[in-house]
Amino acid sequence: MRNALLAAVAALSLAPAAQAADLAATTLALRDKALTDTTAWDVTESLTTEVGARPQGSPGMDRARDWGVAKLKALGFENVHVETFETESWLRGAESAEVVAPYPQKLQILGLGRSTPTPAGGIEAEIALFRTLDEMLAQPPGALKGKIAVVTQPMRRTQDIGGYAAAVRVRGAGGEAAKRGAIAYLARSASTDDTRLPHGGGGFRAGIPMAALSTPDAELLERMAARGKPVRIKLSLQSTFREKAPAYNVVGEIKGREKPEEVIVIGGHLDSWDAGTGAVDDAAGIGVTTAAAKLIAGLPQRPRRTIRVVMWGAEEQGGSGAAYAAAHRDEVANIVVAGESDLGAGEIFSAKLPKGSREHPAMKAFAAAVVPLKVLVSREPAEDGGADVDGLKDLGTPVVQLQQDAGRYFDLHHSADDTLDKIDPRELAQNVAVWTAFVYAVADSDIDFRKTASAAQ
Ligand code: ZN
Ligand code: ZN
After folding, report:
1. Please, what are the domains in the chain?
2. CA triplet 440, 441, 444: central angle to 5 degrees?
3. Ligand nearest to the CA of 404
4. Which residues contact 285 (CB under 8 A, 6 or more apart)?
5. Residue 86 annotated among the catalytic residues of the structure
6. Would you say 423 and 284 are in contact if contact means Cβ atoms under 8 Å apart?
7. Cβ–Cβ under 8 Å, residues 349 and 406
8. What's the pTM value of the predicted model, to 2 decimals?
9. CA 387 / ligand 2 centre spacing (Å)
10. What percent of the chain has a predicted confidence (pLDDT) above 90?
11. What is the pLDDT at residue 8?
12. Which tens digit of pLDDT belongs to each residue from 362-379?
């Protein structure tokens, strides 16, 4: 009797260790499967080929929504549905820019999101050129009256988001130009490339026309301005803007076997800008996260918790993350963790986990699977899970940050060069392996990131 009791106690105390060993072994096996699986590529190829560009509020977005539903169903997801909301939609019309004096030449530009259109015939004015944003910001009110403000501050290539964070300030400074009297704003593209393709993106509503200049054209204007004669530009930017247009988050789930109400939310954004086919931004993120969930669904038994893939519908123009958080406010306590893949298709080089969780057996299993893929498991906790999970994070949802190498991303991002051929299938598969390992380790364990965070206080 006593021996039987001791054996039972021993079995009980062994159970967590045995479970952890199972979790670790399955995580490794899934990682290996992910490295040769083509689902992410197939999904990315399908979205960019069958839909292409899909700005919020465009017919392309409607087709993307229908594509998302059909794709998730075809891959065996459950509870596939569309969550409709309303947000802004800015759609490009005809655009052109040229130097009219003293050295007439055409310029390559892309209007920025939320730009005000020019009158039909365009506008023509002298430029005021600044090589840094700070130089423009130092101008007093009225100093740019009647001028087209041009900021040519270049962007540094960095592995993380640092170079872009600085460049985005330049892109978004149209309002600052307007405050100083400018009648239009041209910013050097937030680009690390030297092609003559401009890189667009969102600006803030400034009440003036705003566009991105290709990087060679920004430098061309610098050289013209340095010659001392006034440089005059003619600019025509047409667009339509709706404050409220229908938008869609497309959702599918892999239901958990034990605690289906506990949910891991992952995804990418379904919308894109319009110059390219939105391959690295962000068909790749859709492909990676969909593939991760699909691989886990292929196990002999479901993980304990539910995995939910969300294809957010309005990241570029804003609103999909806020709409998602608002719609799921009551469920937040059951959202175990959230994360978005939205920095292209380069390898993941660093994983920032929710606070205090590094030593948990589930995160040890994750680390054992991804360290051989050259992923640094950071000592710093995740702070940013992606724009579309910011709303959930603000409501207290833990987030994960699987940081991609952005070294090449900003050669392509928001430009006509954002196309499928730029994606390396091996790098894409590395992303899938890392996401799969993380999601599985969380989904088939009882890790509670809110507890690990409060224990780490
Ligand atoms: Zn994106
Ligand atoms: Zn983007």
Report:
1. 23-89+244-455 (3.40.630.10), 103-230 (3.50.30.30)
2. 75
3. 1
4. 267, 268, 269, 340, 341, 342, 343
5. no
6. yes
7. no
8. 0.95
9. 10
10. 95
11. 52
12. 999 999 999 999 999 999
